[in-house]
């Protein structure tokens, strides 16, 4: 691929348009050169790899404005003469022209050498301060508590209430979106980080958290009886809520307290272990509105498929994550979810790892006698030997995956002109679960991002919709989009009642969910070839972290997974070690003393520019 992160990547608007065009065309890449076959010896056989990515299907994009007026518009500050990175096709302005481009096969530069506000389309610093969260370990709980308090205070003041935002949002044209395209960082996969989830623990332990900055999800929403309303989560929210009666507040607090230590009270749920969580809730003297809030907005589980124990576990996880970094359990990385894989690439680069882009692999070379994989052959006809090979599922050919049954994820990304629930503050990060529209359909997770997350331009919102697929993404998600948003063009909207946010642009696509597939399901893979999946449909990242650790431990059972890295000044090199300049990798970061603690603190709390997408 031309970009980092595979299906975990983030794109600018023009980069996403090029990605859409690529996946709509789906042209086969015929390899005319077969010279590489001469590298295969008599006692070897090959496992050919797929040359076509089949993980994305049914891509449909829609513009609800005047698209013709944007034909000659280019992204502000774009450099058309640079090669198009992360994109192909005439319509894409160079996605990565916004960034300074190091050599293709270079190690990633250190994050701190970059200026985040320069050429990123970032908003002024004041706009990003409101709910930013620095990820810290448990022994810094006093800082975390202070952060949570400051988050709530700043969250009230970070954006002055707009006098017109509630009634009449600013008119945003398609040409403006194209011109401001570099302000968008649009994720292919939509996720949030649980504040006590495995990924946060790993970011802290490995010190990768210093390469990124996070923003609190500011509110949990519910869709009930045709209306969007805010869900009280914390104790303070519950008792300050005007939606709930005093009796309902007591009911809710009593049930949530029970969920926190439900294992200590097995008598209360033992009779319902074979029932659904929804049925269990109906026995707990909870009003219908409370049952709805708990099921869809706190536990966020299926009404029909989730058991009582699974629902209690999900509720407990939600409650345990409250208050660590803010008033909700979730964090979102500034510049998008695509920052996370790039942050790990940065750490890898510091210790000599090389990430090669636009570098395809023809086949795996297998020794017939031992059955182990010995090497790969790349598209240059170069043979590269190794002891272990980790292959993402999408690279495996159909002949290897004959017994594999994949699930699919339905995805939609919308650019809208206002929030689904307007308040005094425009800078809100919201999560909303919409119950199934029809029987047999899944619930839809909606994540709405504001401009201070560095994922969209000012006066717009970026909305992600995700659910397990039952049909094409448009079939699954458009009914929910129609309930929440106005899909008419600007001219048609003038004659309609204002209120719903207007969709300015939208894309639907299906993404393969290859998680949870046993390695034995793949035919004929050598024992030293490990398969990792693409993104799963869950809201959090636990599946990916568990998978990474499992693969690592299988390869290196005596080693610690992602240990804290040493400080550069503490690294002692052997005298006979080849200097980076002599080995041809002079672009690797040099070992140099850390800056003063004051400078380091200032640097680490700065939003990191999306350098990982540099080529």
From TrEMBL:
Residues 111-120, 591-615 have a biased composition (Basic and acidic residues). InterPro entries: FAD/NAD-bd_sf, GDP_dissociation_inhibitor, Rab_escort, RAE1_2_domI_C. SUPFAM superfamilies: FAD-linked reductases, C-terminal domain (SSF54373), FAD/NAD(P)-binding domain (SSF51905). Pfam families: RAE1_2_domI_C. Its main location: cytoplasm. It comes from the Eukaryota. Residues 138-148 have a biased composition (Polar residues). Residues 90-171, 560-615 are annotated as: Disordered. Keywords: Cytoplasm, GTPase activation, Transferase. One of its GO terms (molecular function) is GTPase activator activity. It is found in: Cytoplasm, Cytosol. One of its GO terms (cellular component) is Rab-protein geranylgeranyltransferase complex. Residues 409-537 form the RAE1/2 domain. GO terms for biological process: intracellular protein transport; small GTPase-mediated signal transduction; vesicle-mediated transport. Residues 571-580 have a biased composition (Acidic residues). Belongs to the Rab GDI family. This is RAE2 geranylgeranyltransferase. It comes from Himantopus himantopus.
């Amino acid at each position: 691929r031309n970009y980092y992160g595979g299906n975990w990547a983030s794109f600018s608007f023009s980069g996403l348009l090029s990605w859409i065009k690529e996946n709509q065309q789906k042209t086969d890449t015929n390899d005319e050169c077969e010279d590489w076959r001469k590298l295969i010896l008599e006692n070897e056989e090959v496992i050919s790899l797929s040359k076509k990515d089949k993980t994305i299907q049914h891509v449909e994009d829609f513009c609800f404005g005047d698209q013709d007026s944007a034909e000659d518009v280019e992204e502000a500050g774009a450099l058309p003469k640079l090669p198009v990175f992360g994109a192909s096709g005439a319509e894409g302005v160079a996605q990565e022209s916004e960034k300074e481009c190091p050599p293709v096969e270079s190690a990633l530069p250190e994050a701190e050498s970059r200026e985040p506000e320069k050429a990123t389309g970032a908003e002024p610093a004041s706009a990003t301060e409101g709910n930013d969260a620095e990820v810290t370990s448990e022994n810094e709980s006093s800082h975390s508590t202070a952060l949570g308090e400051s988050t709530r205070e700043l969250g009230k003041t970070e954006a002055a209430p707009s006098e017109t935002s509630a009634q009449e949002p600013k008119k945003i044209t398609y040409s403006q979106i194209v011109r401001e395209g570099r302000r968008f960082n649009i994720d292919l996969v939509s996720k949030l980080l649980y504040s006590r989830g495995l990924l946060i623990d790993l970011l802290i332990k490995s010190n990768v958290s210093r390469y990124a900055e996070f923003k609190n999800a500011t509110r949990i929403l519910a869709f009930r009886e045709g209306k969007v309303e805010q869900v009280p989560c914390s104790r303070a929210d519950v008792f300050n809520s005007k939606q709930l009666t005093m009796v309902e507040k007591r009911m809710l607090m009593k049930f949530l307290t029970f969920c926190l230590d439900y294992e200590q009270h097995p008598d209360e749920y033992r009779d319902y272990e074979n029932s659904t969580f929804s049925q269990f809730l109906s026995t707990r003297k909870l009003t219908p509105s409370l049952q709805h809030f708990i099921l869809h907005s706190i536990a966020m589980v299926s009404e029909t498929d989730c058991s009582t124990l699974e629902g209690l576990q999900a509720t407990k996880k939600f409650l345990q994550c409250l208050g660590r970094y803010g008033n909700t359990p979730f964090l979102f990385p500034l510049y998008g979810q695509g920052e996370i894989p790039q942050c790990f690439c940065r750490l890898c680069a510091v210790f000599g790892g090389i990430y090669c882009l636009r570098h395809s692999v023809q086949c795996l070379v297998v020794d017939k006698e031992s059955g182990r994989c010995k090497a790969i052959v790349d598209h240059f006809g170069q043979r590269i030997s190794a002891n272990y090979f980790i292959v993402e599922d999408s690279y495996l050919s159909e002949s290897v995956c004959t017994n594999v049954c994949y699930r699919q994820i339905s995805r939609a990304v919308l650019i809208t002109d206002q929030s689904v629930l307007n308040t005094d503050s425009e800078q809100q990060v919201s999560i909303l679960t919409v119950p199934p529209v029809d029987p047999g359909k899944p619930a839809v997770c909606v994540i709405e991002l504001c401009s201070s997350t560095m994922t969209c331009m000012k006066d717009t919102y970026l909305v992600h919709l995700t659910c397990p697929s039952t049909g094409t993404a448009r079939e699954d998600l458009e009914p929910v989009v129609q309930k929440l948003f106005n899909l008419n063009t600007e001219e048609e909207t003038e004659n309609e009642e204002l209120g719903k946010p207007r969709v300015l642009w939208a894309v639907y696509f299906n993404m393969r969910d290859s998680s949870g597939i046993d390695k034995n399901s793949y035919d004929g893979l050598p024992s030293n070839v490990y398969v990792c999946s693409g993104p799963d449909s869950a809201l959090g990242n636990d599946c990916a972290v568990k998978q990474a650790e499992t693969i690592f431990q299988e390869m290196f059972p005596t080693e610690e997974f992602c240990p804290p890295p040493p400080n550069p000044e503490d690294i002692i090199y052997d005298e006979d070690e080849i200097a980076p300049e002599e080995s041809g990798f002079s672009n690797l970061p040099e070992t140099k003393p850390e800056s003063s603690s004051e400078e380091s603190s200032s640097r680490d709390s700065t939003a990191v520019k999306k350098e990982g997408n540099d080529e």
